[in-house]
Design a protein that fits this description.
This protein has 14 helices and 13 strands. It is an alpha/beta fold. The strands form 2 sheets. A 7-stranded mixed sheet has the order 3-4-5-6-2-1-7. A 6-stranded mixed sheet has the order 9-10-8-11-12-13, with helices on both faces. A hairpin with a 5-residue loop joins strand 4 and strand 5. The longest helix is centred in the middle third of the chain and has 29 residues. Bound molecules: guanosine-5'-triphosphate (GTP) and magnesium ion. The site of magnesium ion has 5 residues, from helix 8.
Length: 459
């Protein structure tokens, strides 16, 4: 383990850095109430160690008796707390100086500074949360759309954990039967020939496939997708960017080469957080700053999950458009061709011969065609992914990897039901191991460490 011991009492500032109405220093562990009692002075003279109340008003002082801040102290006794340990939360004013001073006082009295994610890791170690629920807590904090929040809440509530428990039970039961057949070979046939058992395993296999398919939606909802707006100068990329943001974020001007930086903002489209990037118009240029912008635009196109290739509909297509289309096609990223400025004249731009995912005609100026365009884009971003946030859904690459391995074991097992019981048992054991990596039961320690270390401090 990354951490010295769960015997330590840990402390951290659990609210974001900066100024706010309140800020919280959290302590968890066997000594947290003792430590809190040494630094806290109740305004009514109450002894927090003996009193059954859970919230106390008073102030925190340092070793010399110097007052630090007026606070509300919230006590949660084991196991009825987030970590399942004794927890003291000191609600102070949300400024850096009071919070830092309170934290230092807690450390001086014997607490250890918590590592990132260590409170949640303790909840996991103490069996309060399995890994899917611990990870969902992090998703809840990071959720950028209501859909993402709904999905995180479902997982934090144990929807995925329960689905995995069901699968594990089916496999464990099959394993027990097959192991019995290994131990007592004289008993009839290997149990896997049992039709009811095969049926149950097939159902589990279907459920696994459904979960693997759900990962696309889960990943999109959680991580969002990157969409780059790319095209030649002056075609209306920044106008489209502003329109999708419903904000005047990027400068729009009739001068070609206006945008020289890459500008990124997040918008929600159909519940998916979209990292939208406006880029410099692509052209050969002698100006070094604009050239740097074009380089950034190329990089944005390379990194994007989807490209919006914007052209001027009122102009006939040129060789430069064809060359740019060819360059973008080589990236093998899905491209939407957006013919902008349809208000100016009848469309004269003919699409280059490239495999576009969709073709949309719009006017970023008048708004014509935009509703249809947003619909098409949303459909494309959602893909075949079913955005059913209340059913169990995988939302991380490591979950999908493990589920794939588990499903592969079951595929082999069911493809060869006449295999020896030893071989069948082996596949089932491997499948159980893979499922356990999602729930945290068999996750290798280095992976666990990495997962919890990616949490924020104080969480
Ligand atoms: N008539 C008309 N003009 C538009 C439309 N969209 C943008 N424009 C105008 O076209 C000019 C260029 O628009 P921008 O959004 O700055 O174009 P851009 O692609 O970001 O240009 P660069 O940043 O220079 O690459 C501005 O004068 C816009 O007002 C449109 O749909 N119709
Ligand atoms: Mg621009």
């Amino acid at each position: 383990m990354r951490y010295a011991s769960t015997e330590d009492t840990i402390a951290a500032i659990s609210t974001p850095r900066g100024e706010g109405g309140i800020g919280i220093v959290r302590l968890s562990g066997t000594s947290s109430l003792q430590i809190a009692s040494k630094m806290f002075i109740s305004s009514r003279g109450r002894n927090i160690l003996k009193d059954t109340r859970r919230v106390f008003h008073g102030h925190v002082s340092d070793a010399s008796g110097q007052r630090i801040d007026e606070v509300l102290l919230h006590i949660m006794r084991a196991p009825h707390s987030y970590t399942a340990e004794d927890v003291a939360e000191i609600n102070a004013h949300g400024g850096m100086a009071p919070l830092q001073a309170i934290l230092e006082e807690a450390l001086r009295l014997g607490a250890r500074l918590a590592q990132p994610g260590e409170f949640t890791q303790r909840a996991f170690i103490n069996g309060r949360l399995d890994l899917t629920r611990a990870e969902a807590v992090m998703d809840l904090i990071g959720a950028k759309t209501r859909t993402a929040l709904n999905a995180a809440n479902a997982a934090a509530g144990g929807v995925l954990a329960r689905a995995l428990a069901g699968l594990r039970e089916t496999l464990a039961d099959a394993l027990a039967r097959i192991e019995a057949a290994v131990d007592f070979p004289e008993d009839d046939l290997p149990e896997l020939v049992d039709a009811a058992l095969i049926h149950r395993l097939e159902r589990a296999q279907e459920e696994m496939k459904r979960l693997i398919a759900s990962a696309d939606a889960g990943l999109r909802i959680r991580e969002g997708v990157a969409v780059a707006i790319v095209g030649r100068p002056n075609v209306g990329k920044s106008s489209l960017f502003n329109t999708l943001l419903r904000d005047t974020r990027a400068i729009v001007s009739p001068e070609p080469g206006t945008t020289r930086d890459r500008i990124e903002e997040t918008v929600a489209l159909g519940g998916i957080p979209v990292r939208l990037m406006d880029t410099a118009g692509m052209r050969d240029t002698p100006h070094s700053v604009e050239f740097m912008g074009v380089t950034l635009a190329r990089r944005a196109a390379q990194q994007a999950d989807y490209i919006l290739f914007v052209v001027d509909a009122s102009e006939p297509s040129t060789e430069a458009d064809t060359a740019l289309a060819a360059e973008l096609t080589r990236l093998e990223t899905p491209i939407v061709l957006v013919r902008n400025k349809i208000d100016l004249a009848e469309t004269r731009f003919t699409p280059p011969d490239a495999p576009f995912k969709a073709l949309c005609d719009i006017s970023a100026l008048t708004g014509a065609g935009l509703e249809r365009f947003e619909e098409q884009l949303t459909e494309l971003l959602q893909g075949d992914a079913v955005m059913e946030t209340n059913s169990p859904m995988l939302s991380r690459t490591h979950q999908k990897d493990s589920m794939r391995r588990a499903a592969a074991c079951l595929d082999r097992l069911l493809a060869n039901t006449a295999a020896s019981p030893e071989l069948s048992a082996l596949e089932l054991r491997d499948a159980l191991q893979a499922l356990g990596e999602i729930t945290g039961e068999t996750t290798p320690e280095h992976l666990l460490d990495r997962i919890f270390a990616s949490f924020c401090i104080g969480k």
